[in-house]
Write a structure and sequence with these properties.
Blueprint lengths: L2 H20 L4 H10 L4 H22 L1 H4 L3 H24 L2 H31 L10 H16 L4 H12 L4 H26 L4 H21 L5 H19 L1
């Protein structure tokens, strides 16, 4: 790996960590970056997952004020997310690589549509927030479980899906729900990352670079995410996502 490649991978990690704390689609930055440097789709995916785990922890620390008073809610949903992520990670490992390469472009396309529609989704979620239901119900748990399966298998736009589930089923401010989202999606990355460490081939050098970058990005996203231009962020994610689709088809 050249110095330039290392710097670019780390910068992609910074961008992904920032985006994950704010939006939740950092994989659409780091995954195509690894593909561009010649890593196979499966290796790029598992290495990216492992690399982004520290960034989730960093973002969670940045949202510690919003997490206050949400211990039970966060714990229950994190468990559901982790159980789902184990299933998703196992599916990634047992299904043929050709299946992943065939499925992921569709997943990325769906993720890009969610990114583009995010402002409307947020408005819709704000308008339709359920009243008087501040506790975690069965629908929330099952939705989080399903989101965990998706996150364990690939995970692009997992954060947006998770925010939709939380905002439609729990009466709480979006900032506090975003803090829960950071924890639950981070838990999915953590447990699927552990599965990959045990059973998959990981490119440790890029994973470490992404990890270092995502730690920095997690703090940037938590501290300054509300000030970042959301239109510019979405445009960047969509552009990189399109590049990934072109590389995979």
């Amino acid at each position: 790996m050249s110095l330039l490649h290392a710097v670019l991978i780390m910068l992609a990690g910074v961008a992904a960590g920032t985006i994950n704390a704010v939006v939740g689609s950092g994989t659409l930055i780091t995954f195509p970056t690894l593909l561009a440097f010649g890593y196979t789709p499966i290796v790029a995916n598992v290495s990216n997952t492992v690399g982004l785990v520290p960034g989730s922890l960093s973002g969670a620390i940045g949202y510690r004020r919003e997490l206050s008073g949400q211990r039970h809610r966060t714990l229950v949903l994190s468990v559901a997310s982790m159980v789902g992520a184990i299933i998703g990670a196992v599916l990634l490992l047992v299904l043929p690589a050709s299946a992943f390469k065939a499925i992921v472009p569709a997943f990325i396309a769906i993720a890009l549509v969610l990114i583009v529609l995010q402002p409307r989704i947020n408005k819709l979620l704000g308008d339709r927030r359920r009243k008087g239901d501040a506790e975690v119900g069965l629908v929330t748990v099952l939705g989080t479980f399903a989101c965990g399966i998706y996150g364990g298998y690939f995970g692009a736009a997992q954060g947006i899906l998770m925010m939709s589930i939380l905002a439609l089923t729990i009466n709480e401010t979006l900032q506090r729900l975003n803090a829960v989202k950071v924890i639950t999606t981070g838990a999915a990355n953590l447990i699927s990352g552990l599965v990959f460490v045990i059973a998959a081939h990981i490119a440790w050098a890029p994973a470490a670079l992404i990890a270092a970058g995502s730690i920095i990005g997690g703090q940037i996203g938590a501290a300054f995410g509300r000030r970042l231009n959301p239109t510019a962020l979405r445009a960047l994610i969509v552009a990189v996502g399109i590049v990934a689709i072109v590389q995979l088809v």
